[in-house]
Design brief:
Number of domains: 2
CATH architecture of the largest domain: 3-Layer(aba) Sandwich
Radius of gyration: 21 Å
CATH topology of the largest domain: Aminopeptidase
Distance between the termini: 25 Å
Strand content: 25-35%
Helix content: 25-40%
Order of helices and strands: EHHEEHEHEEHEHEHHEEHHEHEHE
CATH class of the largest domain: Alpha Beta
Number of helices: 12
């Protein structure tokens, strides 16, 4: 018999966090999160100041066999004029009955709130980890990207979900220079547009991340599913990323001294998380710090240009500069992710720069 109940109290929250450690224990590609960080994420994230999240646990004969979180994000619906609910943090044994029970429970939680559809996975919005991996299972996941067993897509689709949007990941071409024709184009763009490129100054970290936020909100405001972060959300993310960010991997494009675009890369901290195995004791933290120094992989996590300066080639210039700096840092495996499937400008730029599409993450939708 399968029961699905809200995860209330410390014991249930611990079981919710621990279940993936059991489910993925024999999967060498899975990256265990830090348990302490997951508790804070579920209890004290700034998203919870305006959004509602309810974790659920599925049990069979007292044993946890699945988990899911129902998410109500009113800011998303205000921005997009929709009545969407969301699910996230989904993990499940390969059993349609368990998955169906989890999704039906989420639907029953969302429907009385006046919502007419459920999308996901998002944890808790597209500003954070989102999407279900549907191809590219042979590749290890990069920092802050999703990973799941290969049976998940069929399991979810059997529960009545269809594709809402695909998100693509690109493997960046080796080396530190773009193809010759792209290099010539970038040089011509620099002369014509009169912009300059610079790497970040982390001696003034707060001011630099504030500049980043301004461009981020302008560049993404018309993107599918995008919701601007609140100040608390942004500051929380900036603080969490500060220990792993490198100034060489944040590149600004400026016109007359004012930032108009940026490219942001992250060292692949997953390589450090693996050695911690979910723990945050002194020995685990020491191992993480040592592993982070040895990282030789990175992810281009965001590239944006202010609306007033789009379609001028500035994005290609930012990308090639990040290509150069990441190569100089010794990164040999680099991924650009994620990009909306219908963002033709960025996807065509990636192709022109010699990148290869390697993964697809999918956002699903089901009416309530």
């Amino acid at each position: 018999m399968i029961t699905v109940e809200p995860a209330h109290g410390r014991r249930d929250l611990d079981a919710f966090i621990e279940f993936p450690f059991q489910l993925y224990r024999d999967d060498p590609r899975w990256v265990p999160p830090l348990r302490r960080e997951r508790r804070k994420f579920l209890r004290d994230h700034p998203f919870l100041e305006f959004g509602s999240v309810q974790p659920f646990l599925a049990r069979r004969d007292g044993r946890v066999v699945g988990r899911i979180a129902a998410v109500d994000n009113p800011r998303h619906n205000d921005v997009h004029g929709t009545h969407d609910g969301f699910f996230g943090l989904f993990d499940c044994v390969d059993d349609h009955t368990v998955a169906q029970a989890l999704f039906d429970t989420v639907a029953k939680w969302l429907a009385p709130r006046g919502l007419d559809a459920v999308l996901g996975p998002t944890s808790f919005s597209t500003n954070y980890e989102c999407g279900l991996l549907v191809d590219g299972f042979d590749q290890p996941p990069m920092v802050l990207t999703a990973y799941n067993p290969a049976y998940y897509p069929a399991l979810i689709e059997r529960c009545g979900f269809t594709t809402a949007k695909d998100l693509w990941a690109w493997e960046v071409a080796p080396g530190g220079t773009p193809p010759d024709r792209v290099a010539r184009l970038v040089e011509a763009v620099r002369r014509r547009e009169g912009f300059t490129l610079r790497t970040a100054d982390f001696g003034d970290y707060d001011a630099e991340t504030a500049r980043l936020k301004t461009i981020y909100n302008s560049a993404w405001e018309s993107n599918w599913g995008f919701v601007p972060m609140t100040d608390r959300e942004w500051n929380h993310m900036a603080a969490e990323l500060k220990p792993i960010l490198r100034p060489e991997l944040l590149v600004f494009a400026e016109v007359d001294g004012e930032p108009v675009g940026f490219a942001l890369g992250l060292p692949d901290a997953n390589e450090a998380l693996r050695v911690a195995a979910g723990r945050t004791n002194p020995l685990a933290l020491w191992r993480m710090v040592r592993a982070l120094r040895a990282v030789r992989a990175g992810r281009l996590i965001a590239l944006g240009v202010d609306r007033a300066y789009r379609d001028r080639g500035i994005d290609a210039a930012l990308y090639t500069e990040l290509l150069r700096t990441s190569h100089e840092l010794g990164y040999r495996r680099r991924e650009g992710s994620w990009v909306l499937e219908d963002n033709h400008t960025v996807n065509n730029t990636m192709r022109a720069l010699g990148a290869r599409r390697t993964k697809t993450y999918r956002i699903y939708r089901r009416t309530l």
